[in-house]
Amino acid sequence: MIRYVIRRLIWACVLFLAVTVISFILFFLIPANPAQLVCGRACNPETIKRVAHYLGTDRPVYVQYGKFLGRLMPISFTGGFHFKEPSLGHSFVSRTSVNYIIGQAAPITASLVLGGAVLWMLIALPVGILSALRPRSLLDRTSMTFVLIGISAHPIWLGLIFSYFFGYKWHITPIAGYANFFTPMIGQPSGPWQWFYHLILPWFTFAALFSALYVRMIRANVLDTMNEDYVRTARAKGAPERTVMISHILRNALLPVVTMLGMDIAVALGGAVFTESVYSLPGLGRISINALNNFDYSVITGTIVFATTAIILINLVVDLLYAWIDPRIRLA
């Protein structure tokens, strides 16, 4: 197990470096001058040159990348060996720390993605299993219709429909906005209940596509597993149906679901931008769009680094969980 974790961590570091190198090169090739953005249109060329030197954008890309990695390292050798807080730099537009910007936006995106994942699994597990146990029944046909609608509907269109009916027409939920879970804000709703209340519609919008996909996948896996030889053997030996279902069918049918769940949560981090746009959630997707519009390289790169790290950690946890569930896997 230890060797497996070390090997996965090494590959994670290699992937992290590859993503940061590609991102840095791509943004370096974009024909925009951050110093011009910081100065504004009224600055003369000499001032722009001094600002570029201050920001470090006039240096070669490998020098900028080396300094970027140096800021990310939690260990500093300048002035002696000591630990420091990794830094993603400062925004070229607002001069605010990128750590602070991402620290404010990341909990919102995490609340949306993780809450949506819990919701789509709560919907997909019972519906998919019951559909497999009663194929071609009314429940099965209804669930397949739900799958078709869920796969076809775009999150923006679905979010607008939900906002209109549940928020504007029936006043059941807020139309948009976000409430902080912990920190109370003057003049704004906050607290656990308000946090949950404001995220109900985003969760359902976010979970619609994935729950439809998982219903179909769980149904197919359960149907295939029910026809396996070991299931028929367990029933022939007189094992209770409950034991057959839990120990033989569900445990094996849900193994691919665990793998897909980790991958889809990683994909969902990128797809959260649509839901955040509809419901005006100030998450990572929204700040990324604003940074792209303003050519704010430091915020874009910082968001990519944070998202890459989160995806790598999620996939590592899923790999370990998969190995724990299925003892047939040899980690060595």
Write up this protein.
The protein is mainly alpha-helical and 332 residues long. It folds into 2 domains: 2-83, no CATH class; 99-325, MetI-like fold, CATH 1.10.3720.10. It is built from 13 helices and 2 strands. It has helices at residues 2-29, 34-39, 45-55, 61-72, 98-133, 138-152, 155-169, 192-226, 229-236, 241-253, 255-278, 284-293, 297-325, and strands spanning 75-76, 82-83. The chain has a two-stranded antiparallel sheet with strand order 1-2. Helix 11 (255-278) packs antiparallel against helix 13 (297-325). It is globular. The N and C termini lie close together (7 Å). The mean pLDDT is 81.
In short:
With 332 residues, the chain is an all-alpha fold. The protein has helices spanning 2-29, 34-39, 45-55, 61-72, 98-133, 138-152, 155-169, 192-226, 229-236, 241-253, 255-278, 284-293, 297-325, and strands at residues 75-76, 82-83. The mean pLDDT is 81.
Largest sheet composition? 2 strands, antiparallel
Low-confidence blocks of residues: none
Question: How many strand segments?
Answer: 2
User: Can you tell me the CATH superfamily of the largest domain?
Assistant: MetI-like
**Cα-atom Rg, whole angstroms?**
24 Å
Number of domains: 2
The order of strands across the largest sheet is 1-2
Distance between the termini: 7 Å
Mean pLDDT across all residues, rounded?
81
Roughly what percent helix? over 70%
Which series of helices and strands comes N to C? HHHHEEHHHHHHHHH
- Using the coordinates above, name the CATH class of the largest domain: Mainly Alpha
DSSP summary: helix tally? 13
Q: Provide the structure class.
A: mainly alpha
Beta-strand fraction estimate: under 5%
Remind me, CATH topology of the largest domain? MetI-like fold
Shape: globular
CATH architecture of the largest domain: Orthogonal Bundle
